Amino acid sequence: MVIILSTHYAIVCNNQFLSESWAVGIHGFYLKQVTGDSGDGAILGDYKAEAAGIGPATLWNTRISDKELSFIAK
Fold this sequence. Notes:
Elements: E1 4-11, E2 22-33, E3 50-64, E4 67-73
Antiparallel strand pairs: 1-2, 2-3, 3-4
């Protein structure tokens, strides 16, 4: 069994909405694998992943029938 801890965070500006349905902002993440890889496919041994990133994000809100939907690209 492999355990991975992942934290996602978002940083947004005060005026991030460009219209009623579109918004832009900054999104980031941090990922840390707390147990090493195991099993037949672990050819690199007890490898533990760790990564972080930050970049742009776009949000689009819409309605389909009577349901509100949000799509996020990051």
